[in-house]
C-alpha cells in the first residue's frame, strides 16, 4: 500500500511551523501561508453547496503561474471534450492568484498544506474522479491518499530538469510515493519521460505528448488585436524588447544600448523588469545615467515611442513583445532561471539571452533552429559587446533578422497540439472508470430519503 514516510510528514509539519517566521523576511511565503490557512474550509464549503455527484470531477493542481499556464490550455481542451465535468483548480504560490481567478473552472483556491487530515477531508468532500498535477508539483500525501480511495492520479506537462533537486537524495526518496501513485503521465519529451520514471512513475504509464505551453502562448498572442495601443511604442525605429529582466541583465543591456544608440540614433529599447518595484526602478534610473543614455521614460508617463521606455506595470509583456523586431529574454545571468522565450518567438522575433540557459528546453530548441543567440559567460563587458554586435547586425540586416524570426515562429508551430493530446489522455481515464459520487453528497441524499 502506497503511503508517505514519517520523514516526509515531519518535513511538512516543520515547514508549516517555520513559514510564519520565514515570511517576516519573504512576503510571498507569508502571503502563501495565509492563503493556505483557510483554503481547505473554502473548498469544503464549495463541495457542500455546489458539488454535483452525478458529474465527474477533475481536480487540477499547478504550483505557480508557469505551471498554471500549462494547465490552463489543458483545462480548455478538456472542457471541449468533456463539458459534463466539474473542475477544481488549486495552486500554491500567491503569484498564481490572478491566473486562478480567470480560469474556466468551477472553483479555484490555494492548496492546503500536504498533511493527512487536510487531504482526507478534501478527498472525502470533493470525491474527485481524477487528480491532475501540472509539470512536476506532485504532493505525496494527497496523491497517495487519492490513489488509495480509487481516484486516478495524472500528470500533464511533465518535465524534469537535468540536475533537478528532486532527482537527488533526500528529496527523491521523500517524494517517491507520490510519483508511484501516478496512473498516467504526459511528458514533454523523451528525456523528461526517462527522468520521470526514475522518480517513481511506472514507465508503461508515461506518454510523450509535448508541452501545452506552446498552445497557451500561441492562443494568448493570437488574441491580441493589431490595434492594441501598446504596440505603438515600437514605432519610429528598430526596437529591442527586453523582457523579464533582472539587474544582472540590465547591466549588460544598458552598456550595449549606450553603444548601439550612438551608431543608430533611431534604435529603441523597451525594458520590462521582472519585478518593477520602486527600488528597482530607481536603481534603473541610476544605471541609465551611468551608461550616458537619455533619461528613461516610464510607461505610466509615456504617450508614444521614446528611445528608452521602462515598463512599470506587470502582466503586459506578451503584448509588448509585439512592439519589437527583436527580443532579449532575462534571467540568463542569475539564479532565477531563464524566463519564457516562447512569447517573443510567437511574434516571429529572433531571441537573445544570457549564458545560463542550460536545462531550458525552449532555449535549446531556438538555438538548434538558428532562431536564438546565447551570450558568453565572460563578464559584463564581454557580454555587452557580444550583445551590441548582434543588436547592430539585426538592425543592419532586415532580411536576416526576419528569417531568424520566422524560424523562431516555426519552433512554436511545430510544438502545437500538446494540450489536446493531454486532454484526450485525461478523458480516456475518466471514460474508463465508473462515476465516483462524492461521499458527502451521497450521505446527504440518503438522509433526505429517510
Question: In a few lines, what is going on in this structure?
Answer:
This protein has about 450 residues and is an alpha/beta fold.
Give a written overview of the molecule.
The chain is of the alpha/beta class and 450 residues long. It has two domains: 6-210 and 417-449, Rossmann fold (3-Layer(aba) Sandwich); 224-413, Glycogen Phosphorylase B (Rossmann fold), CATH 3.40.50.2000. It is 49% helix and 14% strand. It has helices spanning 6-23, 27-37, 39-50, 65-81, 97-102, 116-126, 140-148, 171-180, 190-199, 213-222, 247-263, 278-290, 317-320, 342-346, 361-368, 380-396, 398-414, 418-431, 439-449; strands at 57-61, 86-91, 107-110, 130-134, 152-158, 184-187, 206-208, 239-245, 268-273, 297-298, 308-310, 326-329, 351-353, 372-374. The strands form two sheets. Strands 3-2-1-4-5-6-7 form a seven-stranded parallel β-sheet, sandwiched between helices. A seven-stranded parallel β-sheet has the order 10-11-9-8-12-13-14. The longest helix has 18 residues, at 6-23. It is elongated, with a radius of gyration of 24 Å. The two termini are 36 Å apart.
Note the topology.
Layout: H1 6-23, H2 27-37, H3 39-50, E1 57-61, H4 65-81, E2 86-91, H5 97-102, E3 107-110, H6 116-126, E4 130-134, H7 140-148, E5 152-158, H8 171-180, E6 184-187, H9 190-199, E7 206-208, H10 213-222, E8 239-245, H11 247-263, E9 268-273, H12 278-290, E10 297-298, E11 308-310, H13 317-320, E12 326-329, H14 342-346, E13 351-353, H15 361-368, E14 372-374, H16 380-396, H17 398-414, H18 418-431, H19 439-449
Parallel strand pairs: 1-2, 1-4, 2-3, 4-5, 5-6, 6-7, 8-9, 8-12, 9-11, 10-11, 12-13, 13-14
Helix pairs in contact: 1-2, 3-6, 4-10, 4-18, 6-7, 7-8, 11-12, 11-16
Amino acid at each position: 500500500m502506497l503511503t508517505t514516510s514519517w520523514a516526509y510528514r515531519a518535513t511538512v509539519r516543520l515547514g508549516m511551523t517555520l513559514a510564519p517566521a520565514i515570511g517576516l523576511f519573504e512576503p510571498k511565503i507569508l502571503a502563501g501561508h495565509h492563503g493556505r490557512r483557510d483554503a481547505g474550509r473554502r473548498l469544503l464549503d464549495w463541495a457542500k453547496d455546489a458539488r454535483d455527484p452525478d458529474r465527474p470531477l477533475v481536480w487540477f493542481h499547478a504550483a505557480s503561474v508557469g505551471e498554471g499556464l500549462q494547465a490552463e490550455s489543458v483545462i480548455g481542451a478538456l472542457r471541449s471534450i468533456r463539458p459534463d465535468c466539474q473542475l477544481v483548480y488549486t495552486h500554491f504560490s500567491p503569484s498564481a492568484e490572478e491566473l486562478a481567478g480567470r480560469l474556466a473552472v468551477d472553483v479555484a483556491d490555494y492548496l492546503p498544506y500536504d498533511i493527512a487530515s487536510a487531504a482526507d477531508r478534501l478527498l472525502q468532500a470533493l470525491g474527485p474522479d481524477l487528480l491532475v498535477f501540472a509539470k512536476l508539483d506532485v504532493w505525496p500525501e494527497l496523491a497517495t491518499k487519492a490513489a488509495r480511495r480509487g481516484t486516478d492520479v495524472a500528470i500533464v506537462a511533465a518535465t524534469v530538469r537535468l540536475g533537478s533537486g528532486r532527482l537527488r537524495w533526500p528529496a527523491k526518496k521523500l517524494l517517491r510515493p507520490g510519483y508511484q501513485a501516478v496512473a498516467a503521465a504526459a511528458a514533454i519529451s523523451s528525456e523528461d519521460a526517462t527522468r520521470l520514471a526514475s522518480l517513481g512513475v511506472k514507465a508503461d504509464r508515461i506518454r510523450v505528448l509535448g508541452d501545452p505551453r506552446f498552445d497557451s502562448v500561441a492562443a494568448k498572442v493570437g488574441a491580441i488585436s493589431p490595434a492594441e495601443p501598446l504596440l505603438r511604442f515600437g514605432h519610429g525605429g528598430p526596437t529591442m524588447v527586453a523582457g523579464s529582466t533582472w539587474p544582472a541583465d540590465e547591466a549588460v543591456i544598458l552598456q550595449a544600448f549606450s553603444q548601439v544608440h550612438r551608431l543608430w540614433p533611431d534604435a529603441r529599447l523597451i525594458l520590462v523588469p521582472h519585478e518593477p518595484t520602486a527600488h528597482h526602478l530607481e536603481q534603473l534610473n541610476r544605471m541609465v545615467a551611468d551608461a550616458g543614455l537619455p533619461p528613461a521614460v516610464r510607461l505610466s508617463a509615456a504617450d508614444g515611442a521614446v528611445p528608452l521606455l521602462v515598463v512599470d506595470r506587470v502582466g503586459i509583456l506578451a503584448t509588448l513583445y509585439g512592439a519589437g523586431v527583436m527580443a532579449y529574454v532575462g534571467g540568463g545571468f542569475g539564479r532565477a532561471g531563464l524566463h519564457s522565450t516562447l512569447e517573443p518567438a510567437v511574434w516571429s522575433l529572433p531571441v537573445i539571452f544570457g549564458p545560463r540557459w542550460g536545462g531550458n528546453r525552449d532555449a535549446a530548441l531556438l538555438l538548434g533552429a538558428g532562431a536564438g543567440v546565447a551570450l558568453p559567460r565572460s563578464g559584463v563587458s564581454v557580454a555587452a559587446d557580444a550583445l551590441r554586435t548582434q543588436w547592430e547586425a539585426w538592425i543592419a540586416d532586415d532580411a536576416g533578422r526576419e528569417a531568424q524570426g520566422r524560424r523562431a515562429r516555426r519552433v512554436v508551430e511545430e510544438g502545437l497540439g500538446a494540450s489536446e493530446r493531454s486532454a484526450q489522455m485525461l478523458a480516456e481515464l475518466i471514460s474508463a472508470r465508473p462515476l465516483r459520487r462524492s461521499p458527502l453528497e451521497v450521505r446527504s441524499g440518503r438522509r433526505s430519503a429517510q
